[in-house]
Amino acid sequence: MYVPFFKPNISQKAIENVTDALYSGWLTTGKYTSEFEKAFSTYKNGSHCVGVTSCTAALHLAMIALNLPKGSEVIVPTLTFPSTATMALHCGLNVVFAEINPKTLTISPNDVEKKITSRTKAIIAVHIAGNMCDMHALQDLAKKHSLYLIEDCAHAIESEYQGIPSGTIGDIGAFSFYATKNLTTAEGGMLTTKNPEIAHKVKLLRSHGVDKEIWKRRESIAYQQYDVLLAGFKYNMFDIQAAIGIAELENLPQNYQKRKILYQNYVKAFENDPRFELVSQQPNSKHAYHLFILKLNTAQIPYTRDVIMQKMKEKGVETSVHFFPVPLYTYYRTEFGYNQTQFPVSYQTYLQLLSLPLYPDLSMEAQKYVIQTLRDVISC
Ligand SMILES: Cc1ncc(COP(=O)(O)O)c(C=O)c1O
Question: Is 55 in the pocket of ligand 1 (CB under 6 A)?
Answer without folding.
Answer: yes
